[in-house]
Amino acid sequence: MTDTLRSEWLKLRTQRGTIVALATTCVLMVGMTAFFASESETNAVLGGDDDVVQNALTGIVFAQLAIVVAGASLITGEFGTGMIRTTFTATQSRLRVLLAKALVLSLVTFPLALVTSIAAFLVAQPLLRDGGYVAPAYPPVSLTDPGVPRAVVGTALLLSAYALLALGVGAIVRHSGATIATSIGLIFLPFLFLGAFPEHIRTKIEQFTPLAGMAIQSTTDRMLAPFDGRSGMPIGPWEGLGVAFAWALGALVLGYALLRARDA
Amino acid sequence: MDVTIETRGLTKRYGRTLAVDSLSLAIRPGQVTGFVGPNGAGKTTTMQLLLGLAAADAGEALVAGRRYASIERPLTVVGALLDAGALHPSRSARSHLRWLARSNRIPLERVDHVLQLVGLSGARRRRARTLSLGMRQRLGVAAALLGDPPILILDEPTIGLDPEGIQWIRETLRALAAEGRTVFVSSHLMGELEGTADHLIVIGRGRLLADLSVAEVIAAASDDRVEVQTPEAPAAMTVLANAGATVISNGRDCVTVEGMPAADVAALLTSQRVRLDGLLSTRATLEEAYFQLTRDAAEHVSGALPMESSGS
What we know:
The complex is a heterodimer.
Chain A: H1 2-13, H2 16-39, H3 52-55, H4 60-81, H5 83-90, H6 94-130, H7 148-173, H8 176-192, H9 199-208, H10 237-261
Helix pairs in contact in A: 1-6, 2-4, 2-6, 4-5, 4-7, 4-8, 6-7, 7-8, 7-10
Chain B: E1 5-14, E2 17-27, E3 32-36, H1 43-50, E4 58-63, E5 78-81, H2 93-103, H3 109-117, H4 133-145, E6 151-155, H5 163-178, E7 182-187, H6 190-193, E8 199-204, E9 207-213, H7 214-222, E10 225-229, H8 233-242, E11 246-249, E12 254-258, H9 262-271, E13 278-282, H10 286-311
Parallel strand pairs in B: 3-7, 3-8, 5-6, 6-7
Antiparallel strand pairs in B: 1-2, 1-4, 8-9, 10-12, 10-13, 11-12
Helix pairs in contact in B: 2-3, 3-4, 7-10
């Protein structure tokens, strides 16, 4: 297993597309968070109820698109070129190969996403202050305030979950474009079309699609406060993150079953 | 160590097509075994079955006496070249070999060694997308040799190569076999294996058509045919026919003789004082032998079909 891990690590390092996608993830996370933060403003003097923590992590909505590409590229690049046969000739166990890819991907995406989330949070603070998010309605928040570490670390975990989901989908559908489309469809479409559905379906979408992971960012009683003003949490923060990871795990298990069952 | 390649009743079905049809082979070390058949005959599928990339519907595929999947660090036992184009375009030649080496705990020094062996040292930092077809083929051979394996399985290694590249592959294969390795190499062109292969396995539509040494194949197709140039054609024909040879008149002063070696033809005509201007012993090329072989086999197979259907 160590050999396979080292091999997959070397592959990731030398695959330009993956590196570019990871760099794009960082840029989008910080850049789009800064953009949203500079655009948002409030007039509240007392008792503001905007989620300033989530307001400082909004870049995830775009960063997730790039991290999906990174996760997918780890396996669809091999199917596209036929290199997957070389990989399986070198390492017969499909489980070992997929596990090594998942581990290497997580070990790269999580620290990277964590640093990026912290950076996004910090960059957003002065921009939010400029938009009127000031005491007493919005006392300054720091990384160590209650709920903030959970939201920041959770954002990094959620991005990792989405990368893993894309890897799993890649093992299932094999084709690069189809993998990215399917993964983005699973993650981004529920978010995009949330408003188009009636109340009870919206709640279900927020509870059961990979979008549920967004609950981890919430520090108020609203799940997607910056985007959707409804009050009441349809799902707890950790439960929501759990749902996102369950999707990733499901995709990986199905992907593994298909790698075993089908000829390479 | 057992370094043979063996299949027993190997069968693979894709939908309704039998890609490989109860194929039984035994490939020995120390020689180059050519695996020949037209495109779609099942050569690549057989190799994929041997390498555990496809699952057999029936029968066994064994390398080094075992199923490929059960071999630890398989690159040190079997080296394979399936598709030289299967490279990630942005990865360098050296990085490609390095991830392969890592996966099988092969010392990284081997990477530079095999790059040198195939003449790619100068291109080791170039990205795969910038490598020519010939260079990719060389890189594929380098990957196959990375683990210094006693068994080599190469699918169409000469495809798309220029004459110099083909010559290089031939010499490399000969040298590897001379070192005692088992070299199993496929081609859809028989001529490419002439002078390279010692032994031939011919398949068509997934079935074994012939399993012979190259010498046997050529001898079987050549039939001791001798062309005789003589101004006394009628006399020559009488003498040769009386001696038991099959004689065909082939123009005014040319006779074709079958069933008698050239030396005997010459001796007989000289002793009977028939004037002899020239003698040409024709020998079938491997390509001709192959056509004859596949034609015979095809007739054999189609002849056998009605019997099979009546039996079921």
